[in-house]
Amino acid sequence: MPRWLPALVALGLAGCAAKPAVETVPPPRTYAHGIGGATFLIGGAFPPGRSPDGNSLILYGPEGAFVIDTGRHSEHLTAIRQGLSGIGMSPVAIVNTHWHLDHVSGNPALKAAFPDIKVYGTSAIDGALTGFLAKSAESSRKALADGAVPASALADVEGDLATIGRGAELRPDIIVDESRDMTIAGRPLSLRVARNAVTERDLWIYDAAEKRAIVGDLVTVPVPFLDTACPEGWLKALDGVAASGAEQVVPGHGPIMPIADFAIWHRAFSDFIACARGTSALEGCSTGWLTGAAKWIAGDTARAKAMADYYGELVRSGKLDGYCTA
Ligand SMILES: [Zn+2]
């Protein structure tokens, strides 16, 4: 990988330095559809050489609609807006699962279009804006100045820099730093906060009426995005999801999982972390992941392998340990 890449990974460019894929990488996901329980899913895309969008959801209740996570790219935002106009309701809230740019970048445009929107999220973005994101922006600017950004990634890198430049506008209006039950748009939900997992504080949502857990990047494919993670805190958060009573899990990236599939993913993740924390060759950790999570990686194994190699090394090196003490 080029030297600038690791700093950009949380901006979503992991694996973009992988050799041109000889396999057929799945096309951008377009599974915007009703999933039952007054809930719609807008699947986030992750095309080769580009940065991903996280999955978004639109839920509605007696008092309006709300959006969970707002993606990164304008195409994704357009899909959210089409979904909102499709149900003919104005959004009254955004719930952000975490501050990664593939989940919050659409906040300012949606708030501008619908001024009544209140954003719910944790305060972890404050530390990210002065820490991780500030450093990433610095690396990106240097890479641009050095001509080190591949042409295919230029628009994404510039877009992320613009978003970080407006970082204060990404912050929540209503801070949820502890787990609590809430009513949003007249709809009762349980907001759960996981400490030191994917980020310093992640928010996931348990919709008891639907037995559905909407977990953000606590579950992702083709690999777990460990850039700002404490692996052990993440494992603990997954135990919480498993114990929630959910029969269905909506990941931050990838298709909806029945709870039996979540258990398969959970095991593959747990094995990957145990391997990367151990002393055996890291190569075996990556191939173990490809086998354990095979059902979500078909056609994308070259990229998944490159990313698993990268994240395995990140865990093994101890570079993530600081995220466990934040
Ligand atoms: Zn994400």
Describe this structure in words.
This protein is of the alpha/beta class and 326 residues long. It has one domain: 4-Layer Sandwich (Metallo-beta-lactamase, Chain A). Helices cover 38% and strands 17% of the residues. The protein has helices at 5-8, 74-87, 101-104, 107-113, 124-130, 132-145, 151-165, 231-242, 259-277, 282-292, 301-316; strands at 33-34, 39-42, 56-61, 64-68, 91-95, 118-121, 174-175, 180-184, 187-195, 201-207, 212-214, 248-250, 257-258. The strands form 2 sheets. The chain has a 7-stranded mixed sheet with strand order 1-2-3-4-5-6-7, covered by helices on one side. A hairpin with a 2-residue loop joins strand 8 and strand 9 (187-195). The protein is globular, with a radius of gyration of 18 Å. Residues 1-28 have low confidence and may be disordered. It binds zinc ion. Zinc ion (ZN) binds next to helix 3.
Task: Write a compact overview of the structure shown.
With 326 residues, the protein is α/β, with parallel strands linked by helices. Helix content is 38%, strand content 17%.
